[in-house]
C-alpha cells in the first residue's frame, strides 16, 4: 500500500466566518477522528472561510482539494458533511465524483456516513446534494422576502453603517453616532467648501481621528463615505450585473440609493449626516475633478497647478503671448517655443505676491477667503476680478523686481485696451499696493493655512 492509499486530504467550509465561531475547528476534529479510525494519514487541510457553497464565487480550497485527488496525490477526500462540499446539487458534485472514479479516488462524508466507493452511496450523495441545493434556494428566498419587507419600511437590513452613524436598536433606522457624528459633519463641511480630499485626510490623521476600521484615513475611504447613500439618510443597494461567464448575477461594488418598486423614489432609512442636496453638490464637485479616459478608467482632471497660469501675458511689443511657469519663474511661451520674442521673465514668488497685493488692496473684502483658500480657490477669486496681467521684460539682469514698473493688472470691470509697450504707465492699484506694506500672510500666496484651520476643527468638535 503506497502513500496515495494511506493519505487523505480534508476539505472544510464555512459560509459566514464570524469571530468566535468554532465550526471549522469542529469539522476538522471530526474528520481527523474518522481518518484515524480508518488508518489514514491527513496530508493537507483545504479551507474556505466565508465562502458560499451555493453562489458562483471562487473557492480556492475547493479547487485545490479536487486537484489533490484527480492528480493522484491522494486517493481520499474527506468532508464533514456533503453540504460543506457544495450546495449546487449534482451540477457540481456529479462531475467531481466522475473525475474521482476515473482515477480510483473516493469522496467521504463523515456525518452522512457516505463513501462514494461503496455501492449505493453515490446515489445517496446525488440525492443529498440536490436537497442541499433546494435548501439553499429556500433560505435565499426567505432572506430576500425579509429584506424587501424591511426595505419597504426604511429599516436597515444589515452591514456596517457609514462613519458617523449607527443603527437605533428600537427603530432599526440610521441615527447619528454621538462619538463620531461631529467629525463626520466636519468632513462634509470641508468637502462642501471645496477642500481636496487629500487635505481632509491629512487633517484627520494629524489629529489622530481613527478611520472607520482603524488606521489612517485615505482619499478612497473619504470619497466612498461622502458618496454613500446612507450618509444622506437613504437606504443603499449594491448594483448587480449579469455575468455571462458564471451565468449568474454578480455585485459590481457600485452602491446607489434603493428605489421603492412602487414609487420609484429613494427610501429614507433614518437621519443622515448631510442632506441629499448637499450630497449632490459634493458628488458633482468630486466628479469635476476626474476625467474619463478612452479606456474607460477615471483619472484626476488636472487643472492649472500654479496661481497665475493663464493670467500672465508677455508685454513685449508685438508678442502678447501667454506666460507659463518654468521652474521658479514665469516665462513667455514664445521664448519656450523658439519664437523671436526676447521674452519677459519674472520670479514666480515675486509676481504672485505683487498680484495678490494688488488684488487685496482693491478688494479688501476678499482677504479672509484668500488667506483660507488653496491655489484653485485663489485662482477662482482672481478670475472673478482680473482679466489679465501684463508683464514687461526687465531692463537688465540682477535688478530687484519692481511691480510698479513691470506689471499692469487689467481688471475685469475695466477691459483691456490691447496696448503693449516696453515702457508702460502702470496702473495705480499696483503702485499703491506694494508688498512691503501689506501683512506677510497676504504675500504668501502658496503658504500653508493649515494651522489656523486645524485649530478650528478641534474647537468646533469640542463645542458640538
From TrEMBL:
Keywords: DNA recombination, DNA-binding. Residues 7-154 form the Resolvase/invertase-type recombinase catalytic domain. Transmembrane segments: none annotated. It comes from the Bacteria. Residues 162-292 form the Recombinase domain. This is Recombinase family protein.
Amino acid at each position: 500500500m503506497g502513500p496515495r492509499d494511506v493519505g487523505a486530504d480534508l476539505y472544510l467550509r464555512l459560509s459566514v466566518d464570524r469571530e468566535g465561531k468554532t465550526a471549522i475547528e469542529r469539522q476538522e476534529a471530526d474528520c481527523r477522528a474518522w481518518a484515524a479510525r480508518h488508518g489514514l494519514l491527513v496530508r493537507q487541510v483545504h479551507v474556505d472561510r466565508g465562502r458560499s457553497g451555493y453562489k458562483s464565487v471562487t473557492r480556492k480550497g475547493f479547487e485545490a482539494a479536487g486537484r489533490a485527488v484527480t492528480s493522484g496525490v491522494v486517493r481520499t477526500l474527506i468532508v464533514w458533511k456533503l453540504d460543506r462540499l457544495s450546495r449546487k446539487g449534482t451540477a457540481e458534485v456529479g462531475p467531481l465524483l466522475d473525475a474521482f472514479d476515473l482515477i480510483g479516488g473516493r469522496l467521504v462524508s463523515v456525518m452522512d456516513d457516505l463513501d462514494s466507493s461503496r455501492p449505493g452511496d453515490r446515489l445517496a450523495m446525488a440525492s443529498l446534494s440536490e436537497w442541499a441545493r433546494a435548501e439553499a434556494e429556500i433560505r435565499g428566498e426567505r432572506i430576500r422576502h425579509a429584506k424587501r419587507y424591511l426595505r419597504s419600511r426604511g429599516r436597515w437590513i444589515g452591514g456596517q453603517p457609514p462613519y458617523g452613524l449607527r443603527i437605533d436598536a428600537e427603530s432599526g433606522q440610521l441615527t447619528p453616532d454621538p462619538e463620531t457624528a461631529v467629525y463626520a459633519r466636519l468632513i462634509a463641511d470641508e468637502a462642501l467648501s471645496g477642500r481636496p480630499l487629500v487635505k481632509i485626510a491629512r487633517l484627520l490623521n494629524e489629529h489622530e481621528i481613527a478611520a472607520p476600521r482603524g488606521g489612517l484615513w485615505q482619499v478612497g475611504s473619504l470619497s466612498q463615505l461622502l458618496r454613500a447613500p446612507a450618509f444622506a439618510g437613504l437606504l443603499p443597494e449594491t448594483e448587480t450585473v449579469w455575468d455571462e461567464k458564471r451565468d449568474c448575477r454578480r455585485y459590481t461594488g457600485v452602491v446607489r440609493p434603493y428605489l421603492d418598486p412602487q414609487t420609484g423614489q429613494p427610501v429614507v432609512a433614518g437621519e443622515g449626516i448631510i442632506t441629499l442636496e448637499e450630497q449632490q453638490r459634493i458628488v458633482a464637485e468630486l466628479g469635476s475633478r476626474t476625467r474619463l479616459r478612452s479606456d474607460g478608467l477615471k483619472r484626476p482632471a488636472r487643472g492649472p497647478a500654479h496661481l497665475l497660469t493663464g493670467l500672465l501675458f508677455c508685454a513685449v511689443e508685438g508678442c502678447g503671448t501667454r506666460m507659463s511657469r518654468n521652474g521658479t519663474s514665469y516665462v513667455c511661451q514664445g521664448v519656450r517655443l523658439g519664437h523671436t520674442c526676447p521674452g519677459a521673465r519674472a520670479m514666480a514668488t515675486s509676481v504672485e505676491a505683487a498680484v495678490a497685493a494688488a488684488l487685496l488692496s482693491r478688494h479688501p473684502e476678499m482677504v479672509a477667503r484668500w488667506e483660507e483658500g488653496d491655489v484653485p480657490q485663489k485662482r477662482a477669486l482672481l478670475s472673478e476680478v482680473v482679466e489679465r496681467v501684463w508683464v514687461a521684460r526687465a531692463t537688465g539682469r540682477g535688478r530687484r523686481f519692481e511691480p510698479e514698473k513691470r506689471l499692469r493688472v487689467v481688471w475685469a470691470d475695466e477691459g483691456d485696451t490691447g496696448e503693449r509697450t516696453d515702457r508702460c504707465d502702470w496702473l495705480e492699484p499696483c503702485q499703491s499696493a506694494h508688498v512691503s506694506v501689506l501683512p506677510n500672510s497676504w504675500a504668501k500666496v502658496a503658504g500653508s493655512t493649515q494651522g489656523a484651520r486645524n485649530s478650528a476643527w478641534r474647537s468646533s468638535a469640542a463645542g458640538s
